[in-house]
Amino acid sequence: MSRPWMAHSAARRDVGPLLRDWRQRRKLSQMALALDVGVSPRHLSFVETGRSRPSAELLLSMSEHLAVPLRQRNELLLAAGYAPRYSETRLDAPGLDAVRSALQRLLDAHEPYPGLALDRCGNVVLANAAAQRLTTLLPPALLQPRLNIYRASLHPEGFAAATRNFADWGRHLVHELAWLAESTGDAELAALAEEVMAYPNVAALMAARPQAPSDAGGLVLTCEMQLGAQRLTLFTARAAIGAPRDVTLAELTLELFYPADGASEAALRAAATRA
Length: 275
Fold this sequence. Notes:
By secondary structure, this protein is of the alpha+beta class. 47% of the residues lie in helices and 11% in strands. Mean pLDDT is 93; it is low at 5-11.
């Protein structure tokens, strides 16, 4: 499998090459970006080659047009000699009490179906009781130092072993993670993508010729798990915080799992009743 994210994972110090990388990643010409932000192509060329230092306002304008994540916008500002513009507040900080409580209420209201709040790398930062019940099936090694949805789903000792349609679901997760690493230029995501690609089951999966999805007639790809005598078929929906101005909030994603059939719904409700 081609791994284009590796070309962007190394840290760089100069703002010009960083900007050029983002423009090329978004497949924009210098002319197109220059027109978008209201500067001449010549000036943009000077910025990218280091012959001209962009203003902070120009950097932010280009970042907006290039859909650069807030974390990487701060990196661009620092590379150009400016102070970061966006805060990065710990989710457990008092200033985020209202947001954290609102997210937990959303997850709790999703019961008896599993729900998670994830950071940019898929690390679990909040979970409801239904999700916590599922995580008890994982070996302790996959819970430390913190539970990661990609590791838990793809590791041969995690949910991968119980996923009946791993050929479909596993490939979907690998491609998703690779796309995230490439589109954000995030070194931590790139390292995670390399890690999961080294799992023997994932390496074998990606080396094999893709097969037609087992549920080719369905409208959404589901995850089909065999947990003992119980079969669960789930699909996911995602949500994010609107108009964030903080790095932590911008990178949060809610991952909500729903039963795809009546038997799965009954099983999840029964598990909640027994808890």
